[in-house]
Amino acid sequence: MHSIAIIGTGYVGLVTGACLSDFGLKVTCVDRSEDKIEKLNQGVIPIYEPGLEYIVERNFYYKRLDFTLDIEKTVKDNDVIFIAVGTPPQGDGNADLQHVKYVAQQIGQSMNRYKVIVNKSTVPVGTGKLVEQIIKDELKKRKVDYGFDVVSNPEFLREGSAVHDFTHPDRVVIGTESNKARKIMREVYRVLNINEVPFVETNLETAELIKYASNAFLAMKITFINEMANLCENVGAKVQEVARAMGRDGRISSKFLHPGPGYGGSCFPKDTRALVEIGKKYNSPITLIETTIAANERQKNKMVEKIQNELNDLKGKTIGILGVAFKANTDDTRESSALTIMEQLANKGAKIKVYDPCAMEEAKWRLKEIEDKVEYCEDEYEAVNDCNALVIITEWNQFRNLDLSRIKESLKEPYFFDFRNIYSRDNIEKNGFIYIGVGQ
Ligand code: NAD
């Protein structure tokens, strides 16, 4: 049985570590954040991810899963080392590889026998080879010559359903030229292999590109339906019916055809920008994705315009915002459209009242620049009380069944902006509101 180290215990690393330990493997998760490791050792999960707590607790109890700050010992003690550190965007759109490079150095400095180094972070084509070179250089400095292989194993989990996605993936991608490493990876993922999950076994570069291609395609699909929604509004068509009919076509599929306030999150924005930069570097412009990025920015602005078109001057108006997380079932607010929308509203003179079931702490530090204009509320009803409009930005289930008469009484004006189309216009209008959705 292989023993596993996961370096980087964030959304991806923690889920990967917890789920692999649940497959019966011995896993050690490392992070450089003392706070995170201390919390995890006390049984506190530092992120909101449904179903994760129970898996962590159980496997920690049975000593299949542990948490440490000691990367050197962890690298020495384990055979398969996953890299799951962040690869945030740099100012120019390229992925920032400083954490990946640093970890590769640390691995080279600590290695004591053959290891498989598995890159799970989303990284530009060529990073696997770069990691290999960094490790080789470190081994050379130490005048030792241990064998190792680098594998690209991109992750496709979605925050909010990460445990299910990890344990029931549509495919597992394994990129390596080494037969030995490929065999070890099949053994690591044996539970998925025997459950007949398709395995895509390919070379490093292909695996690295698969991740960017997949995310960019999904971002483009969302953007396509957002632009259709805008067109629908201008021609009197209903985008949800357009989407439903399109989705019945097996070649298109119904997934990711829900119009909204523009995609956000920790992956699509940065991965689309990184893919565009990779395209430029290799003289293969990815113009569809360049356009997608620009259209997504316009979509966020368009949401603010919708509010402004109804309320006219925003000075002195108070807007009740429901949802800050970039989507439901996560506390992640990285590049959430809600942040851009709130900042723009505040800059135009509006006051904001806001509530999110899980992302309030995140929101507080991310909205620092407009903190004097934002009031953080205890629940959805406090957030809309005395407001000129209600704006739903995240599709949390609890926002799908609001007490409409209570909301109506609390609002100063009856504006109901539903940027996730989670209500039917007829029902909202029947309750005396002015309804503004997306593409209806
Ligand atoms: P994250 O920011 O939640 O976690 C990264 C962790 O790495 C942090 O806890 C950080 O402290 C730790 N770290 C950084 N440098 C370290 C070092 N030198 N040693 C030890 N720990 C270190 O990031 P994430 O969302 O888990 O994403 C990780 C990677 O996975 C990214 O490349 C991302 O693009 C990719 N990815 C993310 C998702 C997602 O939904 N979040 C999905 C698929 C792929």
CATH class of the largest domain: Alpha Beta
CATH topology of the largest domain: Rossmann fold
- Number of separate structural domains: 2
What gross morphology would you assign?
A: elongated
Quote the average pLDDT.
97
Fraction of residues in β-strands: 5-15%
Q: What does this entry show, briefly?
A:
This protein is an alpha/beta fold. The chain has 2 domains: 4-202, Rossmann fold (3-Layer(aba) Sandwich); 236-436, NAD(P)-binding Rossmann-like Domain (Rossmann fold), CATH 3.40.50. The chain has 18 helices and 14 strands.
Description:
This protein is α/β, with parallel strands linked by helices and 440 residues long. It folds into two domains: 4-202, 3-Layer(aba) Sandwich (Rossmann fold); 236-436, Rossmann fold (3-Layer(aba) Sandwich). It has 18 helices and 14 strands. It has helices spanning 11-22, 34-41, 52-61, 71-77, 98-110, 127-141, 162-167, 179-188, 190-194, 204-235, 239-247, 268-281, 287-311, 337-347, 360-366, 380-384, 404-410, 425-430, and strands spanning 3-7, 26-30, 65-68, 80-83, 115-119, 148-152, 172-175, 199-202, 318-322, 351-355, 374-376, 389-392, 415-418, 434-436. A six-stranded parallel sheet has the order 3-2-1-4-5-6, sandwiched between helices. A six-stranded parallel sheet has the order 11-10-9-12-13-14. Strands 7-8 form a two-stranded parallel ribbon. β10, α15 and β11 form a beta-alpha-beta unit. α1 (11-22) packs across α3 (52-61). The protein is elongated and about 75 Å long. The chain starts with a strand and ends with a strand. It binds nicotinamide-adenine-dinucleotide. The site of nicotinamide-adenine-dinucleotide (NAD) has 27 residues, from α1 and α5.
